[in-house]
Amino acid sequence: MRGNQLQGSRFKVQGDRGCIAPPFPGAAPRSYGMGFTLIEVLIAMTLLSIMVVLLFSSLTICAKSWEQGEDKIAEVNEVAVVYNFFQRHLSSATPLWNDFTDKDGVSAASRSEIGMATEPDNRAFSFQGKKQFLQFVSTFPASAARSGMQLFTIQLQQQDNEQVIKVTLTPFFPVTEGEAWRTEEAVLLKHVSDFTLAYFGPDDTGESSWQDEWLEKEVQPQLVKINIGTTNGVFWPEMIIDLKVAGAVSSTDIETNNDADPAEDNN
Questions:
Q1: pLDDT by residue (tens digit) across 50-60?
Q2: Three-state SS for 122?
Q3: Quick check: helix, strand or coil at residue 197?
Q4: Under the phi-then-psi rule, with left for phi > 0, alpha for psi from -120 to 50, and beta for the rest, what region is 37?
Q5: Where in the sequence is the domain holding 26, given as residue range(s)?
Q6: Rg of the chain's alpha carbons, rounded to an integer?
Q7: How far apart are CA 230 and CA 164, in angstroms?
Q8: What's the confidence (pLDDT) of residue 114?
Q9: Cα–Cα distance measured from residue 8 to residue 18, given in angstroms and rounded to the nearest whole number
Q10: Is 86 in the same domain as 196?
């Protein structure tokens, strides 16, 4: 009886201390409401820090990958735009005769702008090419803002302390007296470190080969090779454009072909 009272007293004391007597002799008492130890807090903070670092590193890698992907898409789009420009307009260049330049080497458009008289009897072939200069005539569709035949002039120029490939468009028709051609300029490509052109066709001996210049000829070259280098390190593949028409065509022939009946051509 007295032993039971002693055990009850011991249970009461331990209960006041937040402990419960062990269920069997020799077992350690269980405690409640005492919180975390310092070691447990340090371990939890260390694990949380590691998780935050890993999460931040993953977000950084994802952001860099996204930026690199966007830069790569922009580079591919830029190459595609330039290639499509040459493929669309240069491949369909029309060989024509007109008074593009006079004996002094001044273009008819430039003479009109500065008020000098043109010489309509002095003809020159529309297609003229140098190592970093190209001139040809191509046609814009009727839906374009500048419809009809246009004289394309492509050359490497200096602009804002860097080299750019600039395109100049001039309408291909005689200007009326007292008026001037409405030319339009546009930058085709910026950050250019190198721009070279080569032309494949018959030379003076009649043999076809690659040439650095195509001047004072009566036919267009068969192929035009374009090499472009940029300062931003983007790789530009070599472009070779196949010209659809090589021989010279007069304006009268073009109008006759446009007015011809398709049924007659089929017959």
A1: 998 888 888 88
A2: coil
A3: strand
A4: beta
A5: 2-31
A6: 40
A7: 10
A8: 35
A9: 15
A10: yes
